[in-house]
Amino acid sequence: ALAPLKAKRTISLGEDLTPLKAVTSYNNFYEFGLDKSDPSERAGTLRPSPWTVKVGGLVHKPLTLDVDQWIGKLSLEERLYRMRCVEGWSMAIPWIGFPLAGLLKAVEPLGSAKYVRFTTLNDPKQMPGLRLPALDWPYREGLRLDEAMHPLTILAVGLYGRRLPNQNGAPLRLVVPWKYGFKSAKSIVAIDLVERQPLTSWNQSQPSEYGFYSNVNPDVDHPRWSQSTERRIGEFRKRPTLPFNGYGEQVASLYRGMDLAKYF
Amino acid sequence: MARLNAPPVWLKPAAHLLAALPGLWLLAGWAELLWLDPASLRLSADPVAHTHNALGLQALRLLIATLAVTPLFRLSRWTPIMSLRRPLGLWAFAYAALHLAFYLAMELDFSLSALWREALKKPFIFFGLAAFLSLLPLAATSTRRAIKALGGRRWQALHRLVYVAGIAASIHFILRVKGFQPEPYLYAALLILLLAARLLPNRKRPNRAPQPTA
């Protein structure tokens, strides 16, 4: 059983939550296989404890985090966020975590740091899907520094009041609620501050389909399917997709003056 | 006395059952979801997407099975297998039609003009629709009467559209998946193999006449 976590709810959502069973059985986590059901069936090989995360790159004070110890010292928040997958489905999930900004401030980024790169574990023994070339491994994602510092951006360590199940990215994952789900890298082992926009796995595999920004945008279709609507897991009819997944008021200013059809 | 080369009585029912099973499984899943347990995960947490994918995959599998009949006959010379070509082809069409109907209903609100727009804008949809439209005239002319009305040669020429359907369906599947995934390529490879087998010279029945010995 997953250890319970104490957290104070800081962000609510006026929407029904997606049932835990759905959140933990319907996952895209290609390190464990290509079917949605593969992660819940096969992620038992992952050893999320002990686990260390290296935070470094262009910083004054690089550090290596022991996730278990660190969770004990933090005051955790519960945040209810919408999660919109690039494939056209969505969920509402009660994450438990903490703002990434705090961690980034602790390592003191150098002036030259402009982006943050997140790297997922790359161990085929724990993640059998790495033996297939579905993507260029290890899984890498990235954010602009101001996106990473935004108060909505969190590192999650739990959901539904417990530590993260393996299939949801244990023990530590990113959650960026205004971007398509794949931006929220799972089972992170390294966070690096870098000067140039980092290469990210999906952007590298099909740049015409998965942009670096990948902000949820109903007006910019994926080349193969429409992004104007989505199906909330548990519902049969589609609902309209909101710009920035409904977080426009908080984040739209990050992209002022940018052509979002070009920087999709 | 049994008709010479008549298929064994179990052959067609077995083919019908195998073809129908995935559909029956989906029906059972929906019955459970709608009447017994709305939280059921038998059809995954997204039953709409699961159903849509399962119908499409079964259509492709049956199309490939249909295309396998002739090469298997040439290889085995077992005439009864030829009796499966029509039922398998019709089942492939039935699943393809359900797959398309489901897409129209769940994604496009039954709008044919929206389907047309999507097909022109997205190659992924274009190839899927092309596959279905290639199968449509074949299903419509699948009766003995249609063969007579068209004449054997013209009927056969028309039914070569099944190759177009197979190729278009394979491309549709390849375009569907994210990242590099082997599954659609395995189907495409099987299809290419079955099409290439038709280019080999057709082995004639072994000549039963006694061979000259000297």
Automatic annotation (TrEMBL), chain B:
Mode of membrane association: Multi-pass membrane protein
Keywords, alphabetical: Cell membrane, Electron transport, Flavoprotein, FMN, Heme, Iron, Membrane, Metal-binding, Transmembrane, Transmembrane helix, Transport
All copies of domain Ferric oxidoreductase, residue ranges: 56-168
Single GO MF descriptor: metal ion binding
UniProt remark on cofactor binding: Binds 1 heme b (iron(II)-protoporphyrin IX) group per subunit. Binds 1 FMN per subunit.
Record's GO cellular component terms: plasma membrane
Chief place of localization: membrane
InterPro entries reported in the protein's UniProt record: Fe3_Rdtase_TM_dom, MsrQ-like
Keyword presence, Electron transport: yes
Stated name of the protein: Protein-methionine-sulfoxide reductase heme-binding subunit MsrQ
Taxonomic placement: Bacteria, Pseudomonadati, Pseudomonadota, Alphaproteobacteria, Sphingomonadales
Gene: msrQ
